[in-house]
Amino acid sequence: MDSQTSALIIARSGQLRESLLVLLRAIPQIERIDQADDALSAVSLRPEVHPNLVLCDFDLPLDEALTMLNLIKARWPQSRCVALVEDERARQAAAVVGIDVVLTKGVLAARLLETIEGLLAKEACGQGAEPAPRQSAM
User: Fold this and answer.
1) Could you report the per-residue pLDDT of 93-105, keeping only the tens digit for each?
2) What is the pLDDT of residue 126?
3) What phi, psi does 82 have (nearest 5°)?
4) CA atoms of 63 and 124, how far apart (whole Å)
5) Angle at the Cα of 59 (from 56 to 65), degrees rounded to 5?
C-alpha cells in the first residue's frame, strides 16, 4: 500500500458523483480519487487501491445498500466511510454496519467538507472513528 491519501466515490454517474468529485479535489491532502458505480465495481478495483476515505451514495434498496457497505468494510476495514442517505431507516442501517459518518443527502457542502477533513485528520493521528453522528439535512 502506498502512503498517498486517496478517496473512493461510490455513486452512479451524475450530478451527485460530479459534485463529490469537485469537493474532494478541493482537499489538498487527497492525492488520488477513484470512482465506482456500485459496490461490486468498487471491490473489483485493482488490488493496490486502498482508499483512506470512501464516500457512498446510499441510493439503493436497503438490502443492496447493506450488502454494499458490508463489502466495503470487509475489503477496506481501515478506510473511513461516509454514507449519504435519504431517510432515517437508511441512516440506522448504515450506522449498524459500522459506517463512520452517516449524513442525510442535502447536507451543505461546507458541512460535508468539514466532516471529511475531520475524518482524515483523525486517521493521520491514528485515532479511531467516533460512532456515526445523527446529522440531518441542512
Assistant:
1) 888 888 899 999 9
2) 64
3) -115, 125
4) 33
5) 70
Query: What pTM value is reported for the model?
Result: 0.83
In Å, how far are 39, 80, 106 from 89, measured between CA atoms? 20, 21, 16
Instruction: Output the nine-digit C-alpha cell for 64.
Output: 443492496
Residue 33 corresponds to which cell in the numbers above?
Answer: 480519487
Rg (CA), the chain: 13
Q: Which backbone phi and psi does 9 adopt, to 5 degrees? A: -105, 125
Neighbours of 50 (CB within 10 A): 15
In words, the CATH class of domain 5-125 is alpha beta
Classified as helix, coil or strand, 3 is: coil
- In whole angstroms, give the CA distance from residue 112 to residue 3: 24
